[in-house]
Amino acid sequence: MDLLRRFALGEIDAFETLVRQFQGDIFAWTLRIVRDPGIAEDLTVETLWRIYRARHQFRPDGNFSAWARRISTNLALDYLRRRRPEQSLPAEPAGSPEPDQLLQRETREKIQQAFRRLPAKLQVAATLALVEEQPYAEIADALGTSVGAVKLRVFRAVRILRKQLSHLGLRSEGNVSRVRK
Amino acid sequence: MTKHDMTEHGMSDDDRQIRDALQQSFPAVNTELRRDLWPAVLRKLDTRPVRVPWYDWALIGLSVSVFLFFPQLILVFAYHL
User: Fold this and answer.
1) d(CA A111, CA A156)
2) Strands (E), A85-141
3) In chain A, where are the structural domains located?
4) Which of A32, A49, A152 sits opposite B41 (nearest CB)?
C-alpha cells in the first residue's frame, strides 16, 4: 500500500515519513509569508497537526504537497489577521548607524508599517508575488483562488500601498526607490 | 496604471518601484529549517483535547431538568445572580 493511502488510514509511521519529507517545504512557504522563523516553526507544527487531524478528508490520489501548502497558507493568513500592524519584525543587528543609514532604516520601517496595515489577504498575495516573486499560479493554488483573483489582490495592495506611502511623505519615485539594504 | 496594464503587460514603472522598495524593506529570509519538527508534532498529537468531566454533564442535565419541571425557579435563580 502506498504512503499516502497508509497516511489517509491513520498510520502514524506513514505520517512521520510525510512530515520528514515535507516539513522543510511547509516551513519555507510559511516563512515567506510571516517572515519570522520562530512563528513559521510554530505554524508548521500546527499545519502538520491539522494535516493529521484532517487525514480522512485527503484523497490518496491527490497532491499532498498542494494540500499541505493550502492548509499552511490559511494558518499564516489567520496569524496575520490576529497580529497587530504595529508588531515589529525581528530586530536588525545592533550598531551605531550612519545618519544616511538611519534615514534609510526609517524609510524601510515606514514601508513595513504601511505594508502591515494592508488587509491580510492582500499582504499574503503581495508578499508572495512581489517580495518573493513566486509564480501567480502557485500563489493561486495555495490561496485556493484563481490567478485573476491573485492579480487583483496584488493590484489592490500596490494601489493602497502607494496611497499610504504618499501619506507618510514617501513618494514612489522619490525616497522609496532609494531604500537600500 | 489600470488593471489592464497589470495583467497584460506585467507592471508599470511605478509598480516596479513599489516592488523594489518592498524587496529592500523585507530582506530575503533564510528558509532552511533548523530542526526536525517531528517531536513537536508528536507531542501535539499526544495532547488530548480538553474534555468536560461526566459530573459536569450530570450537573448540567440536573439543572435543565429542574428548570423544566419548576420554571418559576428561573426567576429565583435570576434574582440571585
Assistant:
1) 16
2) none
3) 3-82, 99-178
4) A49
With an 8 Å Cβ cutoff, is B18 touching chain A?
yes
Query: Model pTM?
Result: 0.75
CATH number of A3-82: 1.10.1740.10
Which grid cell sits at A65? Answer: 504537497
| Nearest C-alpha in B relative to A130 | B19
Which residue in A24, A111, A152 is closest to B22 by CB distance?
A: A111
Compute CA distances A68 → A102, A175, B23, B45, B71, whole Å.
Answer: 41, 40, 26, 17, 52
For chain A, give the percent of residues with pLDDT over 90.
66
Question: Alpha-carbon distance A64 to A17, whole Å?
Answer: 13
Q: Which three cell numbers stand for residue A78?
A: 489567520
Q: What is the mean pLDDT of residues A27-47?
A: 95
Residue A177: pLDDT above 60? Answer: no
d(CA B60, nearest CA chain A) in Å: 29
Q: What is the pLDDT of residue A105?
A: 78
pLDDT score of A85: 63
Of A19, A89, A181, the CB nearest to B41: A19
pLDDT confidence tier of residue A96, bands split at 50, 70 and 90 = low
Residue contact B44–A49, C-beta within 8 A: yes
A28 band by pLDDT with thresholds 50, 70 and 90: very high
Cross-chain Cβ contact B22/A31 below 8 Å: no
Which fold would CATH assign to domain A99-178? Arc Repressor Mutant, subunit A (1.10.10)
